[in-house]
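Issue: ligand-bound run for PMV - logging full I/O for the record.

Environment: standard queue, default settings, no custom constraints.

Inputs:
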Amino acid sequence: MDKKTIISQLLSGKKLTPQKDIGKAFAPSNIALCKYWGKRDNELNLPVTSSLSISLANKGVKATITPIESNQHEFMMQKKLLDPNIDYLQSLQQFLQHFCFNKNAYRLEFDLNIPVAAGLASSASIYAALIKGLNDLYQWQLDAQTLSILARLGSGSACRSVYQGFVEWQRGELADGMDSYAIQLPIQWPALRVGLCIVNHKPKAVSSRAGMQRTVETSSLYSAWPKKCEQDLQQLKIAIETKNFPLLGKTAESNALAMHATMLTAWPPLQYATPQTITLMHQIWGLRQQGVELYFTQDAGPNLKLLFLEEDESLILDSFPEIEIIRPFNNIIC
Ligand code: PMV
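Outputs:
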């Protein structure tokens, strides 16, 4: 099945003319504690494994969508007009075509408070904000499950950015992916902290889409990944339910390192870490040896996200004065 057919099924019976002049929405960035790495269907972004993430409250993307009289879409980021030919707009434009019902074009304005394409899930929040913004413009009143499926068709991890808090993306079994969507876990953990440790703001050289495909096709360790993920997901759910922070931290860190191990054994090998990333890891491990409950996770980029609890905030800031601390359960925008 192709994307076009699925999208028209999901929107069947819905109005295809804008009901407002402008559609607006916010979607948070999300950081996976159990990663999505590998697709079983490249066209529909269907994952090999389920995954689990935490959304970043008010860190993410505000999208403003305006239908315009033109034969070309306009893209603005941080109030600046973008060249529509730049690399990372290509897949966004292709996706957008599925929502041009009357051959119309759009002006898409994205306001981000996270770096683009640096492993901070900017594309997840862009696609989720786009779908939520279209839902507002056309007044479709879609439920969260449908929004999540539509966002997934744009970028896999975007299906988790439809929600705040802890989110599980259930891999599903169906070939059309109608059972592959994210759900919000009904558990809050206000003391949890995520520290953004930015090593490099620059967009990555290899996209997660390309890196994932290369790993699935060539890594000798990839066959061990689905089982590892399944176990980690169960451990993370226990950790969240019982508020067992060492279990959450250890499982998330080990899951990220295992994902990066599959990349290192891909061919050509893939490594998103820079020397600075490795130095930071050793600093974290050193602090842990001294009894500090501090863990990290890393995505398709050199930046680390530190995981710790409110009670250790000032201690962590002493060692990492540059980090930005996110309180995932405070200052939430929906
Ligand atoms: O949805 P994508 O194609 O941006 O892939 C996201 C992949 C990771 O960030 C590395 C892991 C994850 O689950 O978010």
